[in-house]
Write the structure tokens for this entry.
Amino acid sequence: MDRFLSNFVHNIDSKGRVSVPAAFRQVIAARGIRELFAMRSLTHPVMDVGGPELMERFEKEMDAEDPFAEAFQDLSIFAFGDGAYLKFDSEGRIQVTDFIRSHTGIRDRVAFVGAKDFFQLWEPDYFEAYRNEARSRLLAARSRARPTGTPPGSPE
């Protein structure tokens, strides 16, 4: 298991902690990730969470920019100035901080959603609505791409 796959909804305890799903902890251990980094998604009220690969992706984009250009500054603020480290406790829990709550709307439950090399933290109802909308968009795109006369569900 080397990818963050599937989704899980976990309750936040009275101290603001939530258990990272066991399947995700296995990926973290297999990759040797010792620190998790969280940053706000640009497109949704979601937190992207991952290890060094997540940061390296933005650093590569920054390296391609002029360090005096606004694009470089934007990436720097986004990746470094607007991110946070998440620490595990001995029980495999992370703290759901005000930084996370203010961007996501998470209250008492968190949806952990796999995204291959990283995972995301969603407010569960928002995730469910988005997942349903995404499925509808994918089905509509598939229908548009299906050759005329091909019955639904048949191989293309």
Notes: Residues 7-145 form a domain with the Chemotaxis protein chec fold (CATH 3.40.1550.20).
